[in-house]
Design a protein that fits this description.
439 residues; alpha/beta; TIM Barrel; eight-stranded parallel β-barrel; six-stranded antiparallel β-sheet; 17 strands; globular; binds 2-acetamido-2-deoxy-beta-D-glucopyranose
Length: 439
């Protein structure tokens, strides 16, 4: 593997750090249990990954609007599956098992602001959230709760018609930038206070607490880092989906670059390094931070007018390309096994058209990410530009996390890794690569 030399060098340069990255936080989206065919993932498939994971995060519970209670989004599944999952501890006694609330699975169109409403609620109402969480956690044997609150997101650089009307109601600044949340300062201190109260209740109940910062939730707005970090056992930064076909339908770019590429008017905060440094510079201990890596890619549809080179930023894209057949997502999401099946192994294969493979372009600098593409055909059809972290690049990110002295890596999520070994025969290649390069 090309990256080996890089790693031997970087291992030497960080060997003075006291701790190696050692946490591997594995998110498991339980809705994958309800998928069809090869994408369906159950405990039997999950089991093999758990020799690598230090923490398993079961996603996702919801927040009930009005009462502010934590509740199951899928009672039919959770009523037996919560227990099945926490019973895995018998086989893996060291494994810590968390329940995560929010995580973009808690879709409630009638109450898009309910997480903000929880922050604004009074102490008595917030106690409903705390009490209901503790009951669910204790009754089902979870070790702790992960707060993956769906707070308002950073606005994409360009705003297009496809962005929800939700954003449009917010005021514009003189600069033309949106104020996404005019009360962000207030919500920040309310979040700190809520977390303090949760932590107090959890401490006496011997429950753990973690924070997941969802993609494009702006830490500057919502997280008072110096006051927050002591309350959490660890903090996972979901530092990916900086660009997606839904947020940026007309231009494709790396979804999760490690570093800022100061070209073409890119924004300086839309990369891993900025996000990690933000927390570190605000005095969060590196050991508490875990870098989030997505095990899926995002595909844009290329048009006849998109540049042929594929070098990002790719202009004149047209929203999301069709997602994978198994995951069947509308927003251009493909799991790693779906991606590897599309990559070309054959130099003489056709270049365009519905059945042509995608050509992979490897980032030799190991800074921004790999991508793959298939230009549109004469009719403007079947063009795809796909940004993804494959096992190699996930390993590079694990090496980056180690060089920063971070606590570890968080994988989003196990169900998008190749849990059946369809790519090369090896199961969970992304998880394995991360584990290997974390050292
Ligand atoms: C908290 O808010 C609820 C609902 O708005 C209200 O009924 C209750 O009186 C409030 N409690 C306190 C202590 O302010
Ligand atoms: C939050 O957003 C502002 C403006 O959009 C940006 O300057 C800042 O760097 C962002 N903070 C983080 C942590 O991304
Ligand atoms: C490569 O693609 C060409 C053209 O589609 C096909 O004829 C050939 O059999 C393929 N070779 C392999 C090894 O799959």
């Amino acid at each position: 593997m090309r990256s080996n030399i890089f790693y031997i060098l970087s291992l030497l340069s960080v060997s003075s750090l006291a701790h190696a990255a050692s946490n591997l936080i594995c998110y498991y989206d339980s809705s994958s249990y309800s998928r069809q065919g090869l994408a369906k993932m159950r405990t039997t498939e999950l089991d093999l990954a758990l020799q690598f994971c230090t923490h398993l995060v079961y996603g996702y519970a919801g927040l009930k609007a009005g009462t502010h209670e934590l509740f199951s989004l899928n009672v039919d599944l959770d009523m037996f599956y919560y227990k099945d999952i926490t019973d895995l501890r018998q086989k893996y006694p060291q494994l810590k098992i968390f329940l995560s609330v929010g995580g973009d699975r808690d879709v409630d169109e009638a109450h898009p602001n309910k997480y903000i409403e929880l922050l604004e609620a009074n102490r008595t109402e917030q106690q409903n959230f705390i009490d209901s969480s503790m009951i669910v956690l204790k009754r089902n044997g979870f070790d702790g709760l992960d707060l993956a609150f769906q707070l308002p997101r950073n606005k994409p650089r360009k705003v297009h018609g496809s962005i929800g009307t939700y954003w449009k109601s917010f005021k514009k600044l003189f600069t033309g930038d949106f104020i996404v949340d005019p009360l962000a300062e207030q919500h920040k201190s309310q979040f700190t206070e809520l977390v303090g109260n949760i932590k107090n209740a959890f401490r006496s109940a011997n429950l753990m607490l973690s924070l997941t910062v969802l993609p494009n939730v702006n830490s500057t707005w919502y997280f008072d880092v110096p006051k927050l970090h002591p309350q959490f056992d660890y903090i996972n930064l979901a530092a990916f989906d900086f660009h997606t076909p839904l947020r940026n339908p007309e231009e494709a770019d790396f979804t999760a670059p490690i570093f800022f590429q100061d070209e073409q008017n890119r924004l300086p905060h839309l990369n891993v390094d900025f996000q990690i440094n933000y927390w570190l510079q605000n005095h969060c201990p590196a050991q508490k931070l875990n870098l989030g890596i997505a095990s899926y890619g995002r595909a844009w549809k290329l048009t006849k007018n998109s540049e042929l080179s594929g070098l990002p930023i790719v202009h004149e894209t047209c929203g999301a390309a069709p997602g994978g057949l198994q995951i069947a997502s509308a927003d251009g999401l493909l799991s790693w096994p779906e991606i590897c099946a599309k990559l070309s192994q054959n130099a003489s294969a056709p270049y365009r058209g519905e059945n042509a493979p995608l050509r992979k372009v490897t980032d030799l600098n190991q800074k921004y990410g790999n991508y793959a593409l298939r230009p549109a055909d004469e009719n403007g059809d079947y063009g795809v530009w796909l940004s993804f972290d494959d096992p190699d690049f996930a390993g590079i990110k694990a090496g980056y996390a180690k060089s920063k002295g971070l606590g570890g890596i968080a994988v989003f999520d196990l169900s998008y890794d190749d849990f059946r070994g369809l790519c090369t025969g090896q199961k969970f290649p992304i998880v394995r690569s991360i584990k290997y390069f974390m050292g």
